[in-house]
Amino acid sequence: MKIGFIGAGNMGGAILRGYLTTTNINREDVFVSEQNQEKAEQLKAELGITPAKDIAELVALCDVILLGVKPNNFETVLPLIAEKYSTDKVLVSMAAGIEMSFIEKYLGAEAKIVRIMPNTPAMVNEAMVAVCRNANVSDEEFAPVFHIFKAIGKAEEVPESLIHCVIGVSGSSPAYTYMYIDALAEAAVKNGMAKEQAIIFAAQSVLGAAKMVLETGVDPVQLRINVCSPGGATIEAVTILQQNGFEKNIAEGFQAAVEKSKMMTKN
């Protein structure tokens, strides 16, 4: 299988590097097309992948094409893809606000399209990736594409109708989590801890708590109850957070991201 990346910026580059470090794919079978050819050559030197001279060449050579350009560039890039696209190829889009039906207008109703919604922890191979496909992508064609994203963290197949929800719960939520870590660290600093050390304490606690949820299978509410000994320090903190609307604030932030995603959508 030959894989091509059109654009290897922050997210596309994170997926590219993560995939290369966790699989045994022949790196010469991984292609990249960049607007800046010098950047493409740098990726060749760094990663051993193959620069394509342009988008048309990459599309002609590859079985799976990952489109990592910004949403406002789709109307420019999709016609270039269409020049060499054929229905034996799968196009993967990672752009927020671009529905698969929008891409079908350029590539045709028979086009095989997968849409993903990753998040920035892809940079450390801890992504959460939502993956959806149109009706033209068979299980056999979908499996190797899905594997790309399982290689950089966790991936779940969802219907496209849930993409707005995904943006709220995982696409945008690293930002909320960074706010939480920073607030904990700042509070620790006020109590005498150095900022660098406080960040380690706060971030590792978040990482550990997340692993407890994922690896034990215990409901997060029960895990929280388990930590809260009657009359202890933890239940005192939890009570104050609840009184100040902690859960309500998170839910309202989540919904704001969902509504903005809906407003941005092109179909």
From TrEMBL:
Report the protein's function. Catalyzes the reduction of 1-pyrroline-5-carboxylate (PCA) to L-proline.
Q: Provide the GO MF annotations for this entry.
A: pyrroline-5-carboxylate reductase activity
Q: Which gene encodes it?
A: proC
Please state the Enzyme Commission number of this protein: 1.5.1.2
Alphabetized PROSITE patterns for the sequence: P5CR (PS00521)
Q: Which SUPFAM superfamilies match?
A: 6-phosphogluconate dehydrogenase C-terminal domain-like, NAD(P)-binding Rossmann-fold domains
Q: Using the record's annotation, list all stretches that form the Pyrroline-5-carboxylate reductase catalytic N-terminal domain.
A: 2-97
Q: InterPro entries under this entry?
A: 6-PGluconate_DH-like_C_sf, NAD(P)-bd_dom_sf, P5C_Rdtase_cat_N, P5CR-like_CS, P5CR_dimer, Pyrroline-COOH_reductase
The protein's superkingdom reads: Bacteria
Main localization (coarse): cytoplasm
What name does the UniProt record give this protein? Answer: Pyrroline-5-carboxylate reductase
Q: Pyrroline-5-carboxylate reductase dimerisation domain spans which residues? A: 160-263
Localization (cell): Cytoplasm
Residues annotated as binding NADP(+): I6, G7, A8, G9, N10, M11
Q: Quick one: a GO biological-process term for this protein? A: L-proline biosynthetic process
Q: Which organism is it from?
A: Clostridium aminobutyricum
Transmembrane portions of the chain:
none
The protein's matches in NCBIfam families, at most eight in alphabetical order, are given as: proC
**Which pathway does it serve?**
Amino-acid biosynthesis; L-proline biosynthesis; L-proline from L-glutamate 5-semialdehyde: step 1/1
Instruction: Recite the UniProt keywords alphabetically.
Output: Amino-acid biosynthesis, Cytoplasm, NADP, Oxidoreductase, Proline biosynthesis
Similarity section:
Belongs to the pyrroline-5-carboxylate reductase family.
One GO cellular component assignment for this chain's record is: cytoplasm
